[in-house]
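Fresh eyes needed here. Kindly weigh in on this sequence plus structure tokens:
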Amino acid sequence: MILSNNSYLRNPPVIIDPKQVVVFDSIRFSLDICDISYSRLKSNLSLLADKVKISQKDYPEIFLDVWSLISNSVIFYKISKKRIQP
């Protein structure tokens, strides 16, 4: 897990602006999606390595997880660089 359960991103302080909560949620979701995609990618690559016959859906499933990792990493990067005006 990238973020711990007691992270401020998972449990934002109640005194912050609602706009900031949305940003925290966006960051948290993008990191959680990266974490899930990475775990699925490792698992799917391991299964693929053990397969004798590769189906037509195997490679698109691998690329789905890779693309999800890339896309959500970019989202995280862009959100983390953006300055929020209260």
